[in-house]
Amino acid sequence: MRRVIGGVTLALILLFAGCGKQSEVTGETTELFSSFMISQSGALRFDGYGYLHFYSKETDSWLYLCNRPSCLHRDSSCGAYWGEGYAHAFYYDNSLYVLQIASEAWDGRLFRANRYGEERQEIGRTESFPAPAYTMQIVGSNLYYIGEIWSDDQNEETRVLCRVSLKDGSYDSLPQPDTGYSVESFQEYAVTDEYLYYMYIVSDIDINDFIDWDTGEFTDESWKEIVYATQLYRMDRKTEVFELVFERKTVGAVPHMVEILKNRDEQFLLVLDNQVVEYDSNTGETTLLLDMEAVAAEGWSNMRPVGDLWVVNMSHSQFILLEDWKEIDRFEGSAEAYYQVLGMSDEVVYFVGNNGLSYMDYEDMLNGDYVIHDVNGYW
Predict the structure, then answer these.
(1) Which among 342, 338, 275, 308 is positioned nearest to 135, based on CA atoms?
(2) pTM for the whole structure
(3) pLDDT tens track for 96-120
(4) Helix (H) and strand (E) counts for the chain?
(5) Cβ count near 54 (within 10 Å)
């Protein structure tokens, strides 16, 4: 039986509120991250009561996604209300899509509506729901995500790569590679025309076996000898044949930062703890681009491409700007706030943190005017 390596779930405490006149809502989703969906004209997010809100840069405020005149947005008659429970919302092909938990088993229902949430139609059901801390991707007319499936028989949770057609709502749980290890954690994925890429952290020993759960302490020092392998597989989408194309082994602590990114020239970048490595899918060769300890020895949490630059998120509200993998500047947000960079859409760089959604104009960033603006409104 395979067991899942325990991981840290990213918890985003996001409090906003908004109401007002309906803003023009257009564009397709360009970035789907946790409970935030960034489109070309703004951002979408559900509040904790089942209401869908839209942020428009034009109005600089959160609005209920409701097109009904004089609506007070207080009950199920509101056009922004979708029902309580966890859900994701995003735009594709000028339509609004909502993927909503259908039951305690964490299966899902996929709805399609017009861009204001009207004319709703359930178009499909899924057997899993996106893991909260993992990015979803729209490739072609399909939504991809890492889903979580709970097995009552085995009393464990399994992560699988899922695909949902945004045309007809059909759902597939895609094949998984046989890693050959008894303990594994599916961490990341990437989609190309020919291949699906899967990134795993695997081991033959479970670190949990060395923990006294009454005290939270390790029972002995044997855990320091555990060998972990970070593996990258690719699956031919026609033949569904898997190939191990990259592997790196470490001893001791579980790798804390494993990620697949895409450079602006569509080259794969592998984040392996404190190193950023370029992976050439044609030759299988890897090139070290950045040793993060050289620029962020004090620690870092994530990095995102922003136009021709990369933004590295350090602790709390500190950031490093990279160009051609060299540091060109640093900037800070409010000392009282915690920010994490989400990405860029329509020349706006978005951040999220304990002040809610924030943004910086990309042109200002290029000119060294590093002002992070908090979006008006809370919930």
Answers:
(1) 342
(2) 0.83
(3) 999 988 766 678 899 999 988 999 9
(4) 2, 33
(5) 29
